[in-house]
Amino acid sequence: MTDQNNGDKRQVHLAAHFPGVNNTTVWADPASGSHIDFSSFEHFARTAERGFFDFFFLAEGLRLREHKGQIFDQDVVGRPETATVLAGLAAVTENIGLAGTFNSTFNEPYDLARTLATIDRLSGGRAAWNLVTTHNAFTGENFRRGGFLDGADRYHRASDFLDAARTLWESHIEGDGQFSYSSDFFDISGTFPVPTTPQVSPVIFQAGDSGEGRDFAARQADVIFSRHSEAEDGRKFRQDLDARLEKAGRRPEDLKIYPAISVILSDSAEEAQERYEEVRRQQVSGPGAIAFLEQVWGADLTDLDPDGPLPSFDPDLGNADITRGRVRHEKDPGAVVKKWRELAEAKNYSIRELVIEVSGRGGTLVGTPSQVAEKFDDLTQQRVADGFILVPHITPGGLDDIVDKVVPELQDRGVYRTSYPDSGGGTLRDNLGLPSYTPRTLQEIPA
User: Fold this and answer.
1) Amino acid 442: pLDDT
2) What is the reported pLDDT for 320?
3) How far apart are CA 217 and CA 158, in angstroms?
4) Would you say residue 447 has pLDDT above 90?
5) How far apart are CA 413 and CA 377, in angstroms?
6) How far apart are CA 242 and CA 224, in angstroms?
7) Taking burial as the number of CB atoms within 10 A of a residue's CB, which of 250, 272, 276, 398 is the most buried?
8) Which residues of the sequence carry a binding annotation for FMN (predicted)?
9) How many CA atoms lie within 13 A of 227 on its CB side?
């Protein structure tokens, strides 16, 4: 089969996120399998590859989340080490990109550069690094230097880290692997042991949504993950990034935008909506709703009925650490509580009903395969996204229906490929439509 192209229409791109056990995955569903056995990773990645997805993405946390001083067993409670899983998947797939999250605070350039170069070489040029930063002492307690990094320095270290890694990856292009790199955070020299890989540098992903994160992505990244999947919100995000890219001396097409999105399918729109409401109830259990509320209230609310009203008292604004290890999006709990009270009163919501609404992932497409394909196509043509990273609620079989039912609809529209670039055997950069990596000796990267 060959690629089809419907005139000048933009092509839809899909990718897959293996969610593991968390507040997205309905882990208690009978259809849910293991989240740590290699067979689950293999099934998920092979299915995505069968659907000509761009990449398989595996997140990673460096410490188990805690709630009220205990491991929060309704959330992530275990996952094998990411690089090992990706290396294993390189052996059972041929075309799909292999993206993993690796932290620039609690790793060192030499070790991580060697790991990623090895994956890129083993996979024939399919490696990607989702570069994340952190400075919190909670995660740091697992490491020798603890919470040593000031929050203001996390992107400074990340930039130095990536610069150092690229120095190592490029060291064999015109030399024998000898390297020397010195910056505010690193002073290293030696010989890099992995010869130049197919991509030279793995594709760089970034997911920060702060101003600092967007600036970093505009300067350094090839792909940015986004929470902005709705049309208007996504257009504003795109416009903001385009302005930052121009300032950084880069073009809009140099940075691909991939919002996270979920899909609920059925044979009719009505059945799909019913299924969506059922999934949301499964995702937000009674205890889960109370725990979600406690993160904002900063108080123990276990005595409350999840099917009853919101607490009558105000939140404890000084107890923001009731949940540790999760990004806190509610920066002003007082304002959040006020908004939630107004919503609960207007719609007569119980605690659980409120949490189901306010914790909704936003980016969920609900409908028949044809309707979902049409929405993917529409968002792509509007430049809301360059691709979509699918986050299913069932692991590992949550992609099966999408590949079997939605992908053919997209292909019939002429907006989705019917083979990988170059008939397979290409790199992840090829999958994404990115140019080959240009060594820094041939380019100027803005500071």
Assistant:
1) 58
2) 59
3) 11
4) no
5) 9
6) 12
7) 398
8) 101, 155, 210
9) 10
Q: What are phi and psi of 250, to 5 degrees?
A: -120, 165
**Does the annotation place 210 within a ligand binding site?**
yes
The percentage of the chain sitting over the pLDDT mark of 70, rounded to a whole number, equals 89
Q: Give just the sign of the alpha carbon dihedral 221, 83, 225, 185.
A: negative
Written as six digits, the tokens of 139 are 């995660």
Residues 6+ apart with CB under 8 A from 144: none
Mean pLDDT value across residues 227-248: 92
Summarize the confidence of residues 266-280 as an average pLDDT: 95
The reply to whether omega before 396 is within 30° of 0 (cis) is yes
Spatial separation of the C-alpha atoms in residues 68 and 173, rounded to whole Å: 52
Q: SS3 for 261?
A: strand
Q: What pLDDT band is residue 410 in, cutting at 50, 70 and 90? A: very high
CA distances to 168, 169, 201, 362, 436 from 177, rounded to whole Å, are: 7, 9, 15, 47, 21
Nearest to 263 by CA among 353, 96, 389: 389
Report the first-to-last Cα separation within the chain, whole angstroms. Answer: 44
Of 58-67, 173-182, 300-309, 428-437, which range is least confident? 58-67
Tell me the per-residue pLDDT of 102-120, one tens digit each, with 9 for 90 and over: 999 889 999 999 999 999 9
* pLDDT, position 130: 96
Q: What is the dihedral of CA 139, 257, 360, 137, to 10 degrees?
A: 10
Written as six digits, the tokens of 224 are 């940015």
266 labelled binding-site residue: no
What mean pLDDT comes out for the span 124-139? 88
C-alpha dist (Å) from residue 305 to 62, 302, 350: 33, 8, 9
Domains of the chain with CATH codes = 14-266+364-442 (3.20.20.30), 285-358 (no CATH)
Structure-token pair, residue 174: 């015109």
